Amino acid sequence: MTSTDSESTRRRIVGELRRTVIALAADMTPVAGGFAVSTPDLPLVWTLNQVHLAEAIGYDAAVAVAEQHQGHLPFRHIVVEDAGDGALAAAFAAGGWVVDRVVVMALERPADRDVAADGVVELGEEEMLGLMRRWLAEDHPGESGEGFDQVGEYNRREGRLWHETRFGVRSDDGEAVAVAKLRREGPVAWVEDVYTVPEARGRGYARMLVTEATRRARAAEPEVTFILADDNDWPKELYRKVGFEPVGYMGTFHRHAGSDR
Asked: Does some domain include residue 71?
């Protein structure tokens, strides 16, 4: 894929993410460089209460927009579609914000090896929500039950918007222990939320589920299939083995309201 093709693919993917946020949020307000969304019935869901910038507008300007549109929330959350050269991320980090760099990856080639799908099942919505709650509790041990409930409802709404299929693995006693979602909307497919509970890790479930999701995606011959990964974590290497390649980076910046740093 040429750099021009990669940029075109990146723009298409972030356009789908932008469309998703706008479709799910209750209110959208245009701002310089992008828009701000709010969702009063899910005020603890960062994704649905964010400032979303298609281009970097500078640290001070971005923070001012967040203060203006998120002053009623216990957090500030900004997403920038193009992470740029790192200068903006450095400014946010210096300001005490939590900075995450998200790798946007597109399915570009076959997997490096075939993986059997023995044991892969389709999970129900409630099973998926149970796994998402476990994931949240693992990553955010200090969060409230109300926050978990709101994120679960967000997962429900997003999954229905994207007509998602939830591939999973169950333990011998029938408990769902791993999940990967395949979302499809027209000519676009999105593999999302790959998770295995701690006690079932090291058995290849993530690889198996992502491989099966991409097999199903390819069968429908979409124009683009994508996945998102944390640039500072290992799953991006797994996704490369399955056939995904980076086409760009997004920046997310988060801060609790009133924090001194």
From this structure: yes
